[in-house]
Known about the structure:
The chain is of the alpha+beta class and 871 residues long. The protein is built from 24 helices and 31 strands. The termini are far apart.
Amino acid sequence: MLLLVAVGxxxxxxxxLYDAExxxxxxxxxxxxxxxxxxxxxxxxxxxDPTARLQPEAExxxxxxxVDFVAVLDEHGVRLTDRDPALIGTKAQGVGRALLxxxxxxxxxxxxxxxVRALVPVTDPSRRVVGVVTAGIEYANVGxxxxxxxxxxxxxxxxxxxxxxxxxxxxxxxxxxxTHGLGPAEMTRMYEHHDAVLHAVREGVLILGGDGRVLLANxxxxxxxxxxxDADRRQVSELGLGPGPTRLLEAGEAASDEVxxxxxxxxxxxxxxxxxxxxxxxxxxxxxxxxxxLALSGQAELARGRLSFLYEAGMxxxxxxxxxxxAEELSEVAVPRMADFVTVELLDxxxxxxxxxxxxREMRRTALRTTHTGxxxxxxxxxxxxxxxxxxxxxxxxxxxxxxxxxxxxxxDWRARDAGGAERVLEYGIHSLITVPLRARGVVxxxxxxxRGAGSPRFEEEDVAVAEELVARAxxxxxxARRYAREHEMAVTLQRSLLPVGLPExxxxxxxxxxxxxxxxxxxDWFDVIPLPGFRVALVVGxxxxxxxxxxxxxxxxxxxxxxxxSLDLAPDELLGHxxxxxTRLDSQTATADDDHVPLTGATCLYAVYDPVxxxxxxxxxxxxxxxxVDPQGRVTFPDLPLSPPLGVGGHPFETGxxxxxxxxxxxxxxDGLIESRGRDVDEGLALLSSAVAHADRTPEETCRxxxxxxxxxxxxxxxxxxxxxxxxxxxxxxxxWDVPFDVTAVPRVRxxxxxxxxxxxxxxxxxxxxxxxxELLTNAIRYGAPPVRVRLLLGRTLVCEVSDGSNTSPRLRRxxxxxxxxxxxxxxxxxxxxxxxxxxxxxxxxxAEQALDHRAAEPDPSLLxxxxxx
Length: 871
């Protein structure tokens, strides 16, 4: 009906549109013919100014006739009149047929507008075409009539649709009420299906009428209720169903899974009235035999409870990698759901994190959980010995599986180990025991004992399986905790051995440090303080990606490399360049040997060298965070130092930046674990760091303590290395320097000035040795070096003599032959100086020698001089 109404309405709309268009054409043709044939039109076209004569007439006709335009064209199709004066003088389109003398109508599409128009030629008395009159209605206005008629059409269609739908609904409702929507074939097929299903189901179905008579009973109901053959149309009370079923059926109330007894069967009865569902008053009852199901459901419920218990145990045992805590979790899970008392004993070697030994006859009680107070069991910490071979515990260890003692009162073997203690246990009311060995990977770790006391039933065989499963899970967790404790201890020991044991002695920096391992274990963060020649000190902080043994070993390798490279007295950028090459080489070598190796790329390092003479600190960093600088007034800055990629990336040069540090400034070097965490980004961490160190009067130790308390939790998620150094300057009175002319004759003069300066410092005892060292170094620089030559003395805890020149040639120590005229200078220096060496500057090199001042009275051995000279 909806489709028919829609098609009819569409047809009416199309017809209306067609009629409107035809009406427009007829009106346009009538207007055009009337104007074309009007007296004076042809004469006006032949006049000198036809537009002036015809324009008013055309507009008057247009307004009076209801068309949208009336235009007059000359014999060439040029507009002489038009509604739009701007179009007068333009040539019209599609008027060729009218110029030939044919009158016609059409739907025009083009300029100036789409329209329905009529074109009628104007002829003179000789039938010659002298012009054309065109009249029409714009196409957009053709449908106005249709639009005015459209509400009536749509309203009529809607009314027809409503009437048709209502009539169909009334007819359908009457048919559905009478036949339920089914024909004779469907009704027959439905009855057959109903009868087949009713008698095939494994539940008894009984339908009673409102008067309590049986209307229908399927085969299963007849079997379960033992109904007589003539049960149909009989009262329920006459069927001999027994008191339970009869009571429920006569009550006529709804019931759900009501269990009643019928003969030797237990039946689950469900009753529902039929009236609420459109049927006649009565009820439907279903019966299900639950005699065996009841027993099975009890067992299933028990098994479900045990599975739930084991699942909960799996979730609660082993939450930490701590051996003692795991044993306590085992006892907490088992009490009181499985036992009233639980004791756990472990081998001492397991408690220490070592491999279990074969001596399993002696264990230490690690956990004890009870539901009562004042129990007679041995407390936690005592040693439990299994010396008797026939006790349940010894038998469980020997067999490798659980042993059940249902009644402890009759267990003579259990009393044999400790008769007095056994009597106290029995007097307390403990009466049943399951003892299970804790085994993992085939090795005994300890024992778990489950006890039940007064008010609880004895253990049965089913409980043994649960206890074994529970203990097996706990044993794996304890073994994992033991192995973790061992590996963690090894990693911590290794890392502690690789980190600086103590800070070296030096006078130019007051230093404090911290290292905090991560919660998950040791990591690869490290720091170092390295004294350098000339009282300079190198500060190092680095971070290796990852945690564990590999990170600790890698940290040790990089720290050793930094120590070795620093002994060459390299500039910070050169040292990081060598370190980067070493990391790249290690990665390439290890990758070829082991595909599972984690590359070192990503390791970061910051290397800083502080010079107390000038107060400058040269810093180079490879992917590491910039240090914080706290000036003597407590202002905190993070200097913008050149940043290079992490170690191992390769292909990028390293740069060195310089800091001017006034005396008393603090330099704070740290790894990212100090400021960065899951709940805090780097910027927030740097802000907290600034507020923690922004105090002018704090020592480095106090600064370290404040940073740890303010920024770190008790167990940080990442390891942290922290180094705080407060600067000191070498007094100008302890520094002496001379520019030396590039002439050997200047050596005696400089030697004399040095001797006088040593006298001013009260170091006359070292004058001879110092002059000897200075003479050899200065002569060597003038003879083999290049200008400029400079001498500098530094006085601190030691005396340092430095000679610099403009040559990059490094001197080499060798033993001169007896026939050689030279080659003994550096050998003399090495014999009389405590330390000596060479370092390269931006231009040239510096040869230095250091003398200790704690044995000032010591003089050079003349015999050694004679040996060196070959005398």
